[in-house]
Design a protein that fits this description.
The chain has 261 residues and is mainly beta. It has helices spanning 2-14, 30-33, 77-83, 157-165; strands spanning 37-45, 51-63, 66-75, 87-95, 102-111, 114-123, 128-134, 144-149, 174-181, 184-200, 203-212, 225-232, 239-246, 249-255. The chain has a single domain, classed as YmcC-like fold. Strands 8-7-6-5-4-3-2-1-14-13-12-11-10-9 form a 14-stranded antiparallel beta sheet. The radius of gyration is 18 Å and the shape is globular. The two termini are 33 Å apart.
Amino acid sequence: MNKLFAKAASVTLLTIAVCGFAVAQNLPTAESFVGEKLLFEGKVSKIIQGIAVADITFSFDRDGDRFVIKSTANSKGTLARLFRFSFLQDYETTVDPATFNVIATKKHDVQRERIRDSIADFNYAEKRVTFIESDPNNPTRPPRRIASDLTAPMNDLASAAYRVRMMPLKVGDKFDVPISDSGLVYSIPVKVVKRERQKTKIGKIWCYRIDPEIFGPNRLIEGEGSMSIWIADNPQRTPVRAVVKFKYGKFDIRIQDPNDD
């Protein structure tokens, strides 16, 4: 359960990954995301309703001639107390502004006492993504290496969110989002399901609901489940909510007002 929960948390939280998009009349650009900071809270429910288990943050900035996206998912005390499980996942994504292709992904992944550091390098000239993962608690252990064929455009979990937010969409649309995670490459089918209002910490907002197919054979998560994401129909196309349903319950992630204490 812990491994699946952590993977679902990673994909859901850091992936709000296939989460954003825009209508043709008013598309945001990558530059419009510079300086953006988003805060979310994740709650899990099954037997007990609505336990807060994680804080999730995203920031988008420019570093010289590149964009840098930083995202963090950090477990809260309730998760550790009730399930004796904690996690911290730090992602740093570097993006080429000219193409918005991901250049590199750095991860720091902590699950209880287990720690893994990794980097994925995207070489478009050689059409290859190379992933190297090490164990800082065991420096003598050989690094884990995975390499896959690479095509462009390509995203990691975090950069996919911002690329898709710049795309024109409408209800009924279907499309695929290419994502590379841990050296593997996936094509994620996404459906734009409906337009509906959501009550959020930043107001009652008209949103589009999209359903990315992340569960199943040869998907990001091998088990059974479903995912839905709500994107505000505003100029910035802000992601406001994501829900993941899987065998251990429901994971509900909602945007928080940064002005709240």
